[in-house]
Amino acid sequence: MSRSRLLLLCLALGASVSAQVAVQNDTTIEAYRDLEEVQVKGKLLTPAMNQVSSSTLSLNVKELDALPKLMGQTDPLYFLQTLAGVQVNNEAQGGIFVQGCDNAHTLLTINDAPVFYPSHALNLFSAFNASHLESIQVVMSAHPAADANRLGGAVRLQTYRKAPRRFNLSANVGLLCSDLHIQSHCSDQCDVFFSGRASYFTLYKGLLKTDNLQPDYHFDDFNLTCAFHPTPKDDIVLSAFTGYDRLTADNTTNNQQLFDISWQNLASSLLWDRKEGNAQYHTSLYLSGYHNRFVFDLQQELFLNGKSSVGATGVKHNTDIRIAEGMSLNAGAEYAATRYSPLAFALLGDFAAGVESMPQAVLYAHEASLFADFAHQVNGFFRYSVGVRGSAYYCQDKPFFQLDPRANLSFEVAHEQFLYLHAGTYSQNNHNINLISTGLPTDFYIPASARFKPEYALSASVGYKGAFLQNKYVLSAEVYFKQLYNTVECNISVLDLLYNHAVYTDFIYAGTGQNYGLDITFQKAKGKLSGYLTYSLGWAKRFIPEVSERPFDSSHSRRHQLVATAAYHFNTAWSVGAVFTLATGTPYTEPEAAYLLNGRVVARMGQYNAAHLPLTHRLDLSANYSLQLKQNRSIDFNVSLYNVYCHKNVQFITYSYEAFRIRKTGLLNMIIPSLSVHFNL
């Protein structure tokens, strides 16, 4: 057996053991099953996905355990990528791409604090620990005005506020990483939650070595939430999330470091919620940040050293008032100050003589917004809502003023059959730039300015939702269209940086774009067999003359994608789950020819993003067994298989200089099993 296969086999056996200790003689909830549904005594288990409207989904985090687990870890982003309109998992690219929009167009928050980069290396692990989350809400196209300025979707993560027991401790110990969870109901006025996770890939450095490459990787993430309840009307929640990653690779032949990449996230907030009569008041303060550093060995004696960062501080308040029967108003204000340090790089080594570096710059942006949403349930068949968000934005040289109205209509065309209409405008005052297409987090943010104007979009959608056979089956569909303006693309090669004294800001171009498509979801929400089938048909076109004379596909676009998830409960002890994904490949620019320059092979590229990677598909399976012990204790086992039939999916293109050809490269192309054992004592 080769070392690479032995490595993958060892990584595959990422067994995790979970121990849970409950210290308190609290009354526990007993689980049992009737002939048709999984139930908790006195409370019906909710399905994994609840369709709030055609454009908004509420996800049950507890049901994540029914899905297959990669390396024994439950992953919220893995769940999100099974939804219609969200790009399916690509192991070479992290982030959440909603209805053709870029990852940076998605508003991702945890307790109101924005998160800039939500993944660990190559998207193999989510940066979020599912055990710390109580709920996830996803908005596709119809944003309320209270959401911060973004063009794409919104993902809102909420942590727990009430601990079920006086003290609860659980821990997962695996070959690749371990995590610890603590929940404590300290008193009637205080609950504390802590989650921590760390990896130890370094222990496998010898096995990770392949040919002349010696990689090493480490990540950790931590969550802390303190919820205070000073009165029955008030909740004060302090939360913090941080994550750190470092990925390196060395060439063992010449003892040269090929690359060294590190990145870190921070998202913290202080929330105050108060209920008073017909009004609810919500106030939040948040502090978020992200930075990355990287060093690439471009060729011997020539190194690219880069770094960037972004940080945001903000305050938000909104009041939700029930004006009259069926009428409500949600209004408020938000202010955010953002500090940008766009990519700064230096070229080091003997071959870097005469090549200019990009110095570190610091830019500050300020954004203030007022917003209001009014909703009216006219009768049992018709509902409408209108909203508007007005913003004033300033960064360095020029202020911008934005007024974004939106409207939604809802009709019950038949019993449990609804039709939704949406139209609105959206703005965004930051841009995400990807300078080096490596699939690694080397991208960075720049603020909107007189040169790179704020992005905005005109959005419209028509949706349908229907429930059948006593809500056992739910069918939903949405047709959407987004016209994008001032969307940016960076079209520069490393060759230009090295030999042509190019400045990357001179190769950032703005243009227009169009996202349009169809998303369909069919869900079976009840019974021994539950799950859903999603299909997305989408186009993400960009029109930037400086990049291509013809319209081109966005680098993350997928024309077709099909995802099927299912869980079957044989009885109270046994259940199985499955996820199947099928999607067309993402676009890339195919080289047409190659030539030698200074002893190096350089490719002449063809039409921008005109070629596509091959079709991708993967099947993941899981089996669960619950052993019930006395006094409501249990031991739960989970076995998961990732990529069951070992399909070699291609994630990105590399170049073979010796053979003068391109190489289609994939990750995790063999079956990866994992085992987890959970003790409830």
Largest sheet: number of strands, sense, barrel closure: 23 strands, mixed, barrel
- Helix-and-strand structural type: mainly beta
Shape: globular
How many whole angstroms does the radius of gyration measure?
Answer: 25 Å
Count of β-strands = 41
Which residues form runs of ≥5 with pLDDT under 50? 1-45
**Overall pLDDT score:** 82
Gap between N and C termini, in Å? 41 Å
Description:
By secondary structure, the chain is mainly beta. The protein is built from 4 helices and 41 strands. The protein has a 23-stranded mixed beta barrel. Strands 5-6-9-10-7-8 form a 6-stranded mixed sheet, with no helix packed on it. It has a 3-stranded antiparallel sheet with strand order 2-3-4, with no helix packed on it. Strand 14 and strand 15 (about 235-250) form a beta hairpin. It is globular.
Keywords:
mainly beta, disordered N terminus, 681 residues
SSE blueprint:
Elements: H1 3-12, E1 16-22, E2 31-33, E3 38-40, E4 43-44, E5 49-51, E6 56-60, H2 76-80, E7 107-110, E8 113-114, E9 133-139, E10 154-159, E11 167-173, E12 177-187, E13 190-199, H3 205-208, E14 213-228, E15 234-251, E16 256-276, E17 279-299, E18 302-324, E19 327-348, E20 363-377, E21 382-395, E22 398-414, E23 417-428, E24 430-433, E25 444-447, E26 455-468, E27 473-490, H4 494-499, E28 508-524, E29 529-543, E30 552-553, E31 560-569, E32 574-583, E33 587-588, E34 591-597, E35 600-605, E36 611-612, E37 616-628, E38 634-642, E39 652-656, E40 661-665, E41 672-680
Parallel strand pairs: 1-41, 7-10
Antiparallel strand pairs: 1-11, 2-3, 3-4, 5-6, 6-9, 7-8, 9-10, 11-12, 12-13, 13-14, 14-15, 15-16, 16-17, 17-18, 18-19, 19-20, 20-21, 21-22, 22-23, 23-26, 24-25, 26-27, 27-28, 28-29, 29-30, 29-31, 31-32, 32-37, 33-36, 34-35, 37-38, 38-41, 39-40
